[in-house]
Amino acid sequence: MSKVHTFDHPLIQHKLGLIRDKNTGSKDFRELVEEVSMLMAYEVFRDLPLEEKEVETPICKTTVKSISGKKVGIVPILRAGLGMVEGMVKLIPAAKVGHVGLYRDPETLKPVEYYCKLPTDVEERDLIIVDPMLATGGSASAAITFLKERGAKSIKLVCLISAPEGIEKVHSEHPDVPIFTAAVDEKLNEHAYIVPGLGDAGDRLFGTK
User: 74-84 burial, b if ≥16 CB within 10 A, otherwise e?
Assistant: First the structure.
């Protein structure tokens, strides 16, 4: 679990509790997911390099810190991952946004890519894969594989909640990829839903069934 970073900040935990509540409607659910994603981004981007530059305050000249131009890419896994993008982009407005779409083959049960649109310079970017749920880990692991096949060298995975099974899957196939999550839940049930979880994140974000 050394590559798993779990957030215990009171604001994140409070908002996560509201997200879990089945009585939280789609509008509030979307806003909460965005807010938690923004709060998580502070830690996810902690290692961005800084450089010094000179500015002039209303009083005098001084040296300040500035992000040194490190390129960032946010990559949501469709469709639920879309709910986490805006919160992160608000903090890093220069980030490029890619998209990965996956579905599970009903016969082989393996993830199949149906859409992938990424920045052309993925090998130069810190890529942040976002998906609210890390359940079995199949989709997340496949998305990481697709990015690596296209030249990505720096990848992080950010999820609201995770199951131990999903963490084990990702770590077994991609031990180099750190996982950032607001909670590690108990287990998966017989339908591969996270327990206690929050239900289907995509349906709750977009008001579908």
Answer: bbbbbbbbbbb
